Q: What sequence folds into this?
């Protein structure tokens, strides 16, 4: 399997492959040191916002000089209508919900047998 080509757009215009890879490299380094700080990376690069995503099966960075920054959320593939769905604070819904709670008192949250322990 060949590696997926990284792509990037600025205000909807695709960047040449070499420039897209360079932007991804800078983005990756920034995110390693400033986890989740999309706005900081956008500002450093001279953009109003930047959002990672998936276009088909290709990772894509969408940068904008005018659009407001959205919160960092899970990467989702574009649907046919272009609706990316709601974006949360990042991570899976289970990670955002806090500690799990059992359905009944004194039961393990994943105890499907409903037998007392």
A:
């Amino acid at each position: 399997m060949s590696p997926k080509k990284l792509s990037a757009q600025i205000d909807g215009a695709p960047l040449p492959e070499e420039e897209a890879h360079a932007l991804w490299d800078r983005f990756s380094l920034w995110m390693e040191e400033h986890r989740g700080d999309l706005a900081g990376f956008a500002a450093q690069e001279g953009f109003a916002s930047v959002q990672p995503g998936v276009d088909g099966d290709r990772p894509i960075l969408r940068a904008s000089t005018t659009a407001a920054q959205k919160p960092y959320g899970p990467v989702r593939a574009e649907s046919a209508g272009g609706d990316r769905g709601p974006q949360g604070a990042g991570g899976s819904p289970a990670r955002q919900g806090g500690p799990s709670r059992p359905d009944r008192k004194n039961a393990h949250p994943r105890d499907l047998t409903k037998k007392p322990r």
About this structure: Confidence is low (pLDDT under 50) at residues 79-98. The longest helix spans residues 17-33. Strands lie at 7-10, 13-14, 49-55, 58-64.
